[in-house]
């Protein structure tokens, strides 16, 4: 019996040594250690062995079993390492399986960026209707009928008779919001606006604006400057400077036209002469702003002695054009995927 | 407006270079758009805001420069020595103002025996600098005075005025006048005209008539200086499609007090350059200009601006602007506004004046205190962002198309013309109506890309559609449109895929899963835009919220599209009603699921949704999920039949499911499928 066991062991070890790969090793495992394997069978034969020899033989068989198991394990390890090392190499430069993500329109991205920035400054995003009335688009904003101040707001009409129109700016949302809410508040209003302008590289009859309105008991012109300067630096870079010039809007008083230092030449005096972006001015006009005209507050029944506020409005296309260096406003609405996928 | 630097220097002692002056003006609210070298002069192109008609003159700009720099203002002295002329030939002209409202002030003076001739070089140069062509000395003087004083005037050839009299009246309907530029204009009762005894000789404040134009042979002229109602002038210009240097100023409001002065200034120049004898000056004045007084609280100025300007500084600024301070108390200044500043009416207007001259750049920057808002943004806005991420994440590029369309493209898309919102004043036929659907815009974008040979299009748009409600009101609704076409690009490790109904449906299902909407269903339907065989209504909680399918060939052809396009459109406001507001955690199942596949052969027409509903009904709550994993019809399947394989997931939250128990249920499921659909187990 002992001899048999030794022979079995030697044969198993020899087979393991000679085995060429993992498949052969698995057959060897089954042959010796499987449910009906040679070594497994040895245990079953124990019953026919005289009782006094059983402990000795038993431990011998266990030793053999361990030895064979060990040999199998180390050979398996060796073989697999060899196989992996000699496996055919893949071409890692082949393209990956495409999982294409679509792109968000550059105007949406710009609106999201502007709104996100103001949300972080405590603003709330509010929207309003695109189909408006003369009342909200003009009258409550102190833009009288048949006044030259309306020239800047050429408007598409749906019904002159019933005074319905497409809003020519996002400012009507100011009044709509104030009618339903009390100060203090800070809101930001993104949206589409419409003006019957002939379309060319820099004009579109439909475009987007973002409007801001802050109303409270002690809101000052200096606050307007502070907030917009943060906006300019966050949007266009830390070194962006801002310039406020007196201007006129019927719904703000005092009013300002706001410029940023040219984002291409930095508005430096000597290089500016050659700058293709600012044309040598050193400044880029980006928004209109001002303190809310008390007339606008009167229209919504606010106490003009108690509250003050500031408002600002900017063209989203203009900001996106500056930010991305886009050359033609029509590209935004042509929706060529080669354009859309750049952003 | 073009301002000559050299001309400006005649009235104000500027010591600044043209560039520095341009900067100063820009920072004072007179936005200088360009500086152009013009011989030895510089021309500043200035954009003048609608509230400052007083800046539409060299003197007005000079006044501002004086206020900003402290330099002295020198307005040319006007000699009024001709107040009582002894001209026997030129008696007072008969003038009648019929409409006092539209013409509150009308002045005229006859000047006889003038000599019309070319202008001297200096006058020609001045006009040329501001972009005007020299005509003759009389016309040039009128134009010169318009630019200098901002007061538009007019000179008539007096001998051509029938009856020698002036009637300021409304035109008669159908009355015609040929204006100096040569065009004949037909008038109506809304137009104010200057007429003689039988015909209009000028459109008041806008343009003179050819019939009384000053020509080389003119001997006697009538010099008009007046104030016309701004709104009436504006209406006339719009109606007749004319805008002139005169009307531009009248529309914005000229200084009524300056009329007499301007008239004398012109007279002086005429006598100097064309000779002649002045007649009597007629001034018909119905205007009631009262002194405007505004109370200013210096404290308010500082409160609004966020600064501390001393009262003395404020007073200095006000005086420099020609604003008088007739009275003042400790907390209040009483201000008298000059007649040329019609824009100053309220305290806040004065606050602006002080801040403007003080300089916006000298106001500090502060940060307002943050006020807590009830919400960061409305639910709808947040969800819209979420939809955008989900759809873009499914590989679709966002597009933005015009909200205005041609009637034709609406019809081409198979959409009904009812309830369309019309634009009354479109510039082109591309802007006739508001879009009733996002479909035409989507197809337009697809066609444009296909024309440029761009393949594999997956696009989406989120935007409003607009409809007319029965009562004449309008509604706008936020919609989502997704469109796919072409072949997703071939890859070496996988086959390319042609866009089809189910790819599009997969994108929508991804969206619903993303939003947590469970009740979505698709029902066969008919829609004019879509192919009959592949069209479904999208329903949530049993309510249709949109439509999807393959576009009808007829529609594609009219958009010049040659390949199949699949498109879905839905109302986002409706969709959002089904988005669970708050997500609640559900305990993870403690016992494992068991999966069983079922393969059956059924008639081809059998509807998947029906099979699933029978399965669910039969297996009850233990059937956690069931879905189709294979669909095959071919050699091994009899004609008219289809082989379907479903994977069913069973789970009991309270215990481990026993083999025998599941087998029981599973065979019940099979049995019911046999019964209901004649299904045969494969």
Explain the overall architecture:
The complex is a heterodimer of chains A (343) and B (682). Chain A has 343 residues and is of the alpha+beta class. Chain A has 2 domains: 2-86; 106-340, Bira Bifunctional Protein, Domain 2 (BirA Bifunctional Protein, domain 2, 2-Layer Sandwich), CATH 3.30.930. Chain A is built from 12 helices and 10 strands. In chain A, strands 1-5-6-10-9-8-7 form a 7-stranded mixed beta sheet. In chain A, α2 runs antiparallel to α4 (54-86) and α5 crosses α10. Chain A is elongated, with a radius of gyration of 40 Å. Chain B folds into 5 domains: 2-69, 2-Layer Sandwich (Phenylalanyl-tRNA Synthetase, Chain B, domain 1); 94-285, 3-Layer(bba) Sandwich (Phenylalanyl-tRNA Synthetase, Chain B, domain 3), CATH 3.50.40.10; 292-360, 2-Layer Sandwich (Phenylalanyl-tRNA Synthetase, Chain B, domain 1), CATH 3.30.56.10; 379-489 and 496-576, Bira Bifunctional Protein, Domain 2 (BirA Bifunctional Protein, domain 2, 2-Layer Sandwich); 594-681, 2-Layer Sandwich (Alpha-Beta Plaits), CATH 3.30.70. Chain B has 19 helices and 33 strands. In chain B, a hairpin with a 5-residue loop joins β22 and β23. In chain B, α4 packs across α5 (137-149), α12 (379-393) crosses α15 and α18 packs across α19. Chain B is elongated. The model of chain B has no long low-confidence stretch (mean pLDDT 92). Chains A and B meet through α5, β1, β3, β5 and β6 of A and α2, α6, α9, α11 and α12 of B.
Topology:
The complex is a heterodimer of chains A (343) and B (682).
Chain A: H1 2-18, H2 22-33, H3 38-45, H4 54-86, H5 106-120, E1 124-125, E2 131-133, H6 134-137, E3 157-159, E4 164-166, H7 172-180, E5 185-194, E6 206-216, H8 221-236, E7 242-249, E8 252-261, E9 283-292, H9 294-299, E10 308-315, H10 316-324, H11 331-334, H12 337-340
Parallel strand pairs in A: 1-5
Antiparallel strand pairs in A: 2-4, 3-4, 5-6, 6-10, 7-8, 8-9, 9-10
Chain B: E1 2-4, H1 5-9, H2 18-28, E2 31-38, E3 41-47, H3 58-69, E4 94-97, E5 105-112, H4 121-129, H5 137-149, E6 153-157, E7 165-170, E8 176-178, E9 184-186, E10 192-195, E11 200-203, E12 207-208, E13 221-227, H6 230-240, H7 245-252, H8 259-274, E14 277-285, E15 292-296, H9 298-305, H10 311-320, E16 324-328, E17 333-337, H11 347-358, H12 379-393, E18 397-398, E19 404-405, H13 407-412, E20 421-422, E21 433-434, H14 439-451, E22 457-468, E23 474-485, E24 487-488, E25 497-498, H15 501-515, E26 520-524, E27 530-540, E28 543-551, H16 553-558, E29 565-571, H17 572-576, E30 594-603, H18 608-619, E31 623-632, E32 641-650, H19 659-677, E33 680-681
Parallel strand pairs in B: 4-7, 18-22
Antiparallel strand pairs in B: 1-3, 2-3, 5-13, 5-14, 6-13, 7-10, 8-9, 10-11, 11-12, 15-17, 16-17, 19-21, 20-21, 22-23, 23-29, 24-25, 26-27, 27-28, 28-29, 30-32, 30-33, 31-32
